[in-house]
Amino acid sequence: MPFERIEAFFAGHAYEPHRHDTYAIGQTLSGVQSFRYRGADRFSLPGRTMVLHPDELHDGHAGSDDGFRYRMIYIEPAAIQSVLGGRPLPFIKGGISPDPRLFAAVRALLPATDARIEALEFGDGLFELAHALEAAAGATSPPGRVLDYRSAERARLYLHDLPEGTVTLDMLEAISGRDRWGLNRDFRRLFGTSPYRYLVQRRLEAVKTDLRRGISPAEAALDAGFADQAHMSRHFKKAFGLSPGRWLRMAGTPASR
Questions:
Q1: pTM over cut 0.90
Q2: What's the CA angle centered on 111, arms 108 and 117, to 5 degrees?
Q3: Could you say which DSSP state residue 177 is in?
Q4: Exposure class string for 133-164: b at 16+ Cβ within 10 A, else e
Q5: What integer pLDDT is reported at residue 255 of this predicted model?
């Protein structure tokens, strides 16, 4: 997958001036993160999003004595372009944006760095990020197109059956007969969610069924197609607002073995 994630804490001067051939997109978790960018000093605080355009010179240092903690993801322009289909790469003036949609899109791709991101999850997040970048940069979306229901339904039925192993965008293209981003757009408009979130929700329903039967959370997670119990629990909390154990207690069903 064309991205890299880091999380770090720094006090004092962190980085000398340098440049990437990728987007450097991140969020300050605590403290004040400062950097020199396009001839001016910038200051990033929690709740905003940093977007450093490819090939732009910048440095990095703490803006206060307490230091700063941040997460950053580096994404190849070609990955963004695969969504935009030839439109100009979005440019965020000043390198910092308060846009809430952009913040949410980046946050979805920046869980704790030891948290697993699946191939389809990354594709889903990339779609959100590319369009959020366009919107935050002031670009306009193209007019809507006719929806391809048959292709989206083929993909939905495939995901509904909980295929084993890793599900990729290449697989969904082959099954649906539709290009990945057109399928992603139509799937969202037809079924109210993305292909990845649809698959995760089906997996979570399978987990709930197993938990009601007394299967352990670890075994239920693997049976449903999650990488491990921690991976399942992260999605469970995100989907339902509580842990699997708490949900099971609230459901009034037997505890897992």
A1: no
A2: 80
A3: T
A4: bbbbbeeeeeeeeeebeebbebbbebbeeeee
A5: 43
